[in-house]
Amino acid sequence: MADEASWRSAISRAYYSMYHETMASLTCVPKYSSNHHGNLIGYMTTPAECKGEPYDSRTMRLLGYNLKQLRDARNEADYHIADISVSKEMAETAIASAELYFSKWTALKSAKAS
C-alpha cells in the first residue's frame, strides 16, 4: 500500500470482511429493515437479544465490541476524509484486528461443534 486512499480502503475492507463473516456465522439474527450494521452490533452485545445463538454470550459480546471498533474506524476512513489522516499503521492495525476476529470466530465455532 503506497498511499492514503489504499490505507482507507484496507480499513473499509477489513471491516466489511468482519461484518460478512459475522452474518454468515450467526443463526438467529433478525432481518433488520434499516441500520443493519448498528443493529447487528447491538444484537451481538446484548445477551437477551442473541440468546438463541449457539455461542457463548460473553464471547459474542466481545466480538460485537470488536466489530464496533472497526466499524467506527471504517466510518472515519470512509467519511471523514478532510478531518482525519489515515496512516499505513492504522491500516495494518485494522487488518490485524480482522485476522484476530476471524480466529476468535473459528474458536467459537469449534467450541460449538464439540
Overview of the structural elements:
It contains four helices and no strands. The longest helix has 26 residues, at 88-113. The chain has one domain (4-113). The chain is an all-alpha fold. The model has no long low-confidence stretch (mean pLDDT 94). 71% of the residues lie in helices and 0% in strands. This is HEPN domain-containing protein.
Helix count equals 4
Q: What radius of gyration results from the CA coordinates?
A: 15 Å
Q: How many strand segments? A: 0
Q: List low-confidence stretches.
A: none
What would you call the structural class? Answer: mainly alpha
Percent of residues in helices: over 70%
Total domains, how many?
A: 1
> How can the largest sheet be summarized?
none
Please write the string of helix (H) and strand (E) elements.
HHHH
Based on Cα principal axes, name the global outline.
globular
Output mean pLDDT: 94
Percentage of residues in DSSP E strands: under 5%
- The rounded distance between the terminal residues' Cα atoms is 40 Å
SSE topology:
Layout: H1 4-25, H2 36-45, H3 57-79, H4 88-113
Helix pairs in contact: 1-3, 1-4, 2-3, 3-4
